[in-house]
Structures are given as C-alpha cells and as structure tokens.
Amino acid sequence: MLCAVSLLGAGTPMLAHAGVGNAQGAVHAAEMAARMQPAEQQAVVQARPTGAGGSGLLAWPGVPRLGLPVLRMPDFSAPMQSGAGNASPMLPWLALAATWDPDLAHRAGTARARAEWQHGRAVVRVGGVDLLPSGRLQAGEDEVLSGTMAGVIGAGLLAGHVLPVFGSVVAEEQARADGTVPARAQPVPAARLASHSLLGVAMALEIAHGGAILCGGMAPCPTVTDLGAMVHDAWRFPGMVIAPPGGAGRSMKEDDADPAIAAVAAGVDMEQVAAGEDGHDVFGAVLRQAAQAGTIKPAQVQAMATHILASFYMAGSLDHPPPFASTRNASTPPGTNDTLVSDVEMEGAVLLQNENRVLPFDPALGPVLLLTRNAMRPAGDLLAAALRHAGLTVTTATVPDGPGASPPPAATQAARILMLTGSNDDNRLITALADLGGHVAVVLTADDPDRQMPWLDMVDSVVQAWAWRDEYAQALAALLSGQQDFSGHLPVTLTGGFYPPGMADADYRAFASAHIVPLFPFGYGLSTRSHLTLGDLHVTREGNHLLASFSLTNPGDGPVRATPQLYAEMPPDMPGASRRLAGWRSIMVAPGHTVRLGVPVSLRLLGQWEQGSGNWNVAAGDYTLSLGFSSVMLLRHVTLHLPALHVPGALENAPLPGVAAE
C-alpha cells in the first residue's frame, strides 16, 4: 500500500493546468461565474440557515436562473456529533489513523458519502488536518500521516459527489495534560506553515483530487496571512476557502468599518452564517456595501464565486445534488456501515506491551476475570460475551467508580485479569491488581495520549483500544483471543503525561529534539505472531522524488499486517533537521514469504519553502533516510547526497495509495 504522496508541481496557469481537481471543471466554474449577475455573485459567497425547524443545516443558495441547485451542509464551527441528524456511527478518528491503512480510510469515506447523501448534505468537513499547527489533532500528530488519511477519506467522499472540506476546530484537539495550548493570538504568514500544518492540507487535496479548505476553525481566518496567495497563486488550487460562523474574522476587526475587506484579503471565498448570527456576518450587507463603494472590486467577488463553483464541480455536486426530501426522511439501510467500525478497531487497536506472552489468552489456562468500573459495565458485558463466543471462560466483576476503589474479592483468586480502563482514576486500582500476583492485561478505552501508566512495569500486557464503541467488542475479542493479530501503530506519541521543560509541542519530533524517548513512540505497535525482518534499504533519485526500496520477510507461521515506516532527516546544520515521517507501506505478508516494496518520497519533505518563487528549495547536502517500525525503532539507514534543487510548489493530483508489491 503505497503511502508516501507525490507532490509534483507545474508552472502553467491555474485554469490551463490540470492541477488538483479537474481542469475542465475549473474552466467551467470561471465561465459560469462570469454569467452570474452581481447580486447572484454576492449571494453565493454565503451559506445561510435553511429555515427548516431544528435541522441545523445551512444552505448554499445556488443560482436557479443558471440551473445551479441549492446545496445543504452542516455548520462547521462545532465538532461532528452522532445523532439523528448525522451519519452514525461517526468516524473513530484516532482508531482509523492507527490502522495506517488507506484502503480502510477510503472505505470510510465512501460509507460517509452514502450517509451524508441520505441526509441531504452535499458538503462535509474532514478534520485531522488544519492550516494552523496543533499539538495533536483527531488524525494524529504528523502531517504526512494525517494528510494522507484525510485525503483518502476525501477521495471516497468525492466519489459519492460529496465535497470534503479539510480543516479542524479547536474542540477536536487532544489537550495536553499540563494544560498548554498552542498560541494563536498573533498573525502568522502562510509561508511559515508551508512545511508544517499546511503540508497536511496540501497532501489531502492532492490525494483526494479536490475539495475545499476550512479556515477559522482554530482561529479567525486573518490569523494566517497571505493564505489566498499561497493557495491560489503558489499551489494553483482552483477551489474555495470556506469560513465557519464567526471564522471570517469580524471578531478581530470590531473597529473596522469594512471587515469584508479583511476577510477577502484573508482569502475567504465563502462564509457560513449560523442561526441568530444575521447582521453579524461579513459577506452579507457589509460585502454589498463594500462592493457599492468600490472598496471591493467586482472582479474579486467574481473570483470568489469561481473558487466556490470549482470546488462543487470537483465533487460533481452541482450535477448530482442530493434530494431535499432526504433531509426529512433519511434512514440508513441495513448494512450501509456493515463492519466498518469493527474493522477499524480490528486494525487500529495497538498492542503496547505483552510480557510473558499473556496475549492472546489461551483457553487451556483457565478462566479470565474481566473487571470494569460501573460506567463501563455494558461495554464489559459485550466484550465478555464475545470472548466466551471465541472459546474463553470469562467471569466478570465491577468495582465502584472513584479513585479509591479496591480490587473485588474475585480478583484475589484470579490467575488472569483483564481490566478495561478509561482514566487515571483507575491507576491505583490497577497497581493493586498487579500486587495480587496474577497476570494482568490492561485495555485503554479512551483517546488520551497523556494517559499516565505508573503501573506499566507491574502488568503483563497493555492494549490501546481507543475511545470505546460497542462495535469494538467483537473485534477486540478476536484480538485478545488470538483469532486475529494486532496490527495497529500509534498515530500519536504516548507521553505518560510527561513533557520536558520548555517543550512547546508533544509530538515525536519535539521529543527527538529534546533527546528524550517518550513512554511509547509515534508509529509503535507490536504483533503477537511474528517479528518481521527488513532487508537492505536502497534509495535512488527520480526527478523530484526519491524512491526507497527494501525487502520485508515474515518468518513466522501466520499472516502479519506489516507497516514499515520511512523517516527522513536533513543535514544536522540545517533548520528542521529533526527526523520526520516520509512515507510508509501497509501490507499483509503471508507466513514464510518475502516481499519487495518501494516507497516514493517527495523532495518537498526535504526542502524549505521560498515564498518569492513559490518553490521548495532543497539545499545541497547529505540526507539520511531510515527504515523501521516506529519513529525510534529504525533498523536500516541510507545517506544520500543531493545537489541544490528547486521543486515546484503547484499541487497536482496524486495517485490514490493502493496495495501493490514490486
């Protein structure tokens, strides 16, 4: 499964160059926008409440005169929630990222497209990437991983004529244990973010072959300065930048007589207006007044309309709009989500520790005592039933909620204990269980990268199973019983709640720069079946890419899903010299087999953005590529000397990652 992304560029004009999306659609968007009357152009730069009581939907008005339909979308200012008005079950983000499996991500995107269509929505936000840096978003802490996975989800959405909008909101961040939050009060040039957060957005657009960009989810849109120049001039992206309610930046410009000018300057093409916000928006009366006064030129409004139409043409939403009736009568047919969420857990659960090979549980060694808090009892009952169905003898017990709970009497006689835990309140209890002398396996049931584990050296096995969903019971039982092998790898660094002094971020590059090994590193994950071996690593240059090739052998007697990871490191005397993920493969390897794999690496990952030219400059020097199974467990290394190079910054459609061995 080829997972490094080809970020090739070109220097031809935006509408003449294929670029991201469809060149014909971009030309059609420009022609259609030119046919709009000024009032129509001004109307289509907003999405407003539909008026349907309690629907919570916003409507893009379309242009009936030109045959452009009304399109509905949710308010993007808040995290997506499960419920009657939303696709259910919602996407388990970190668990999906932990699979490192683009095929599964594409399946999630196509399933989501079907659900959105049934609910009458033609636009959906895909989180996990954002314009602004964040410690850890829903799809993990690395731009290459999150950009790839978000892009593949977006490709699935576009295939179903649903437009993906790439961007996150503050509530989707994984908060640090020490309360530190990224500083976002001061404007930051887009050029400074080119190799950081914006890289993930660019990769998502290229892999999806289109979409739109959300600004204002982390901070008002004007926070990222020169965004429009980066997106439309340097990237040559023909689509739109959309702001959620309040995101266009009026709150930053309360004393500005014409906040629409600031929003247009910030690169915003469409503004969402929430219920009750009318009169406090930017692109309504304020935009019309600015257009009448000449402070915003007609050509600027027409360009905004062109960008909006280009995104919708990428998705085919204008030619295939969902029927409005579906918003009132939506129902999910049986089998629509099939086993998606269960399969995400099957591939995404991460085995962190397995001393004494306690996992998988052997039925011949007697019963397993499953312990839960009262709040987790329904989940425990589901898991116990699934484990019994897998052939294990399982007894259950619950302990009272609160940090002072003691082990129940049944635990004193149990040889094997399985504990489901969702918070640090259980740490004293887990320590007490380990003191009893039996074998203890701990299953973590929350998305908490900073979960403390003071008991780690006392227990046998630890599984990161992510935020609990009932659909996880069958999959987790198959893993714990050995019917399936663990194959997940961490998309975030598990810190144990410890940050070295002065560390602004908590990702793997920050730990590497501080020369500190975290509790469990990014990319880490164990198997119960086999220890894979890697052959020699060879790296060659092909144009604006490097190609890393190697062999992978499974010497065991069972199939293993492998996720070899490639990391790149710039010369030590250059800025940003810390190691970063450059690509990976996710592939099932049969027992006793060797496969030959290749991972292409864009030279953009080794370059520095040059705003004046809109290129990536790769300095001459010695670059190191390392191959292994986590960001710290690297087994093969190659140093390659590169001459000074210039890589174009324009985006292109990247191949959709697929399964193929050489």
TrEMBL record:
Entry's EC annotation: 3.2.1.21
Record's keyword annotation contains Signal: yes
Enzyme class label: hydrolase
Signal sequence annotation: 1-18
Protein's UniProt keywords contain Transcription: no
Domain Fibronectin type III-like residues, every copy: 562-631
Top-level taxon in the UniProt lineage: Bacteria
Key words, A-Z: Glycosidase, Hydrolase, Signal
Gene Ontology biological-process entries: carbohydrate metabolic process
InterPro entries linked: Cellulose_deg_GH3 (IPR050288), Fn3-like (IPR026891), GH (IPR017853), Glyco_hydro_3_C (IPR002772), Glyco_hydro_3_C_sf (IPR036881), Glyco_hydro_3_N_sf (IPR036962), Ig-like_fold (IPR013783)
Pfam families: Fn3-like (PF14310), Glyco_hydro_3_C (PF01915)
GO molecular function: beta-glucosidase activity
PANTHER family given in the database record: BETA-GLUCOSIDASE
Similarity field: Belongs to the glycosyl hydrolase 3 family.
Protein name: Thermostable beta-glucosidase B
Taxonomy of the source species: Bacteria, Pseudomonadati, Pseudomonadota, Alphaproteobacteria, Acetobacterales
